[in-house]
Design brief:
The protein is of the alpha/beta class. The protein has helices at about 50-60, 75-85, 100-110, 130-140, 200-210, 230-245, 285-295, 310-320, 330-340, 360-365, 375-380, 395-405; strands spanning about 5, 25-30, 45, 50, 65-70, 85-90, 120, 150-155, 160-165, 170-175, 190-200, 215-220, 260, 275, 280, 300-305, 325, 350-355, 365-370, 385.
């Protein structure tokens, strides 16, 4: 049985590599296309984001992780993985069937990344996996000298198994005497393997070909987040829990110098009313106007940037008292020029959008934000996502991120680009 140790956080030593050469830490997300329990499981959305994308984004945000790959045999999963910033390893048919192991997928990915020092196995069927979970298992191997690591949750239950005695079924205590019920505080602490994240020394994994060898560090996680999607009802539970458990990063006023807003679908619900003379009408949210006014008072640079030529875009910007560029085909080029003219570092720009024509701007700025009703590909590319749909107060929500819920942020001196 492997030796185990509970991880209490990283230490300063690094047995895997020298201080001058950071280790290559490869996160592998296995995501094959076939799934009998939940058809299309790895592309199923929780909080509007496909499971495979949720896993990729968590890996990409984790300290120590240098490369993220998705191992798949499915073109749609591959496309979603790439849109979230992962590389794709095309899994051969021999290791893509129902009996294929996760270890086989990881070993195959290692063949394409032979210089890997530490390899992570990250399961996208654990929707509430966090960046801290991934950082914990990676640090246990990279910095704390463990050979392997696994995410676990404290467990206090009694396990039972059905057994047959003299042809009659009954319950048998597993690891405990059913006639003796010690108090929780009198029992040794047990841990439940979450199935979410594992880390292994790459050379040892190639040798042993399984995820547990040598000293195994146990990295504690929040029991409330332990959920593996194997059945349709698991997916329903995940979707119900997402508003409570999701902790997507949101910026503060210290992170940005400018806020750039798309119009249709971001400040509106993407619907258009057309009268008999062909004039278009849209609906906007008063809360968004309140939020924009607060951002302006806080001293942030503001811009409305839209491909639409409809005069209503310019009219709305005038009412909000902020500049507007509309009828723009290449929004990213216009945004880059606006940043240069105003001396703004794009890395300190928050851009809010909702559809694929916003993706080039997402790639340019430091804080790409998708409104809650945005297209899946836009949500996948976003650094943060509002809970509120476009046209229903999403901009007011962004203003609250930056200024606080009362929108009363006292202006501070902004960062000046070098």
């Amino acid at each position: 049985m492997p030796e185990t140790a509970v991880s209490q956080g990283p230490v300063t030593t690094s047995p895997t590599s020298s201080a001058s050469t950071p280790p290559k830490v490869l996160a592998v997300v296995p995501a094959r296309g076939g799934s009998k329990g939940v058809p299309g499981k790895n592309l199923a959305s929780v909080a509007g984001v496909p499971l495979v994308v949720r896993a990729v984004l968590a890996c990409r945000s984790a300290r120590l992780v240098t490369d993220v790959v998705v191992s798949t045999d499915d073109p749609a999963i591959a496309a979603a993985a790439r849109s979230a910033g992962a590389d794709v390893v095309v899994r051969p048919a021999a290791i893509s069937g129902d009996t294929a192991s996760s270890e086989a997928a990881v070993l195959h990915a290692l063949d394409e990344h032979p210089d890997t020092d530490v390899v992570l196995l990250v399961q996208c069927t654990s929707p509430f996996l966090t960046r801290e979970d991934i950082e914990g298992v990676a640090a246990a191997v990279v910095e704390d000298g463990a050979e392997t690591a696994v995410t676990v949750a404290p467990f206090h239950g009694f396990l039972w198994r059905e057994s047959i005695e003299n042809g009659v079924g009954g319950g048998q205590g597993m690891g405990h005497d059913k006639s003796f019920r010690p108090r929780r505080q009198d029992r040794p602490q047990d841990f439940l393997e979450t199935g979410a994240a594992y880390a292994m020394d790459a050379e040892g994994f190639r040798t042993h070909k399984h995820r547990f060898f040598g000293r195994t560090a146990l990295v504690r996680t929040d029991p409330a987040r332990v959920l593996e999607i194997d059945e349709p009802h698991d997916l329903e539970r995940a979707r119900a829990l997402a508003p409570v458990l999701d902790r997507l990063p949101t910026p503060t006023c210290d992170d940005v110098d400018a806020v750039v807003l798309d119009f249709d679908g971001t400040q509106t619900d993407d619907k258009v009313l057309i009268d008999s003379e062909g004039r278009e009408l849209v609906a906007v949210h008063r809360g968004d106007g309140l939020g924009i006014a607060a951002l302006r008072r806080a001293g942030l640079k503001l811009l409305v940037l839209s491909t639409e030529q409809n005069p209503v875009v310019a009219a709305r910007a005038r009412k909000l008292q902020i500049p507007v560029l509309h009828g723009i085909d290449r929004k990213d080029l216009a945004l880059k020029q606006w940043c240069e003219e105003n001396g703004i570092d794009p890395a300190r720009v928050l851009y809010a959008g909702n559809d694929v024509n916003d993706l080039p701007c997402f790639a340019l700025v430091g804080w790409p934000v998708a409104v809650g009703s945005a297209h899946d590909s836009v949500r996948a590319a976003a650094r943060a996502v509002t809970r509120t749909p476009g046209g229903e107060g999403a901009i007011r929500e962004i203003a609250a991120w930056l200024l606080g819920p009362e929108l009363d942020h006292t202006p501070q001196p902004h960062h000046t680009p070098a």
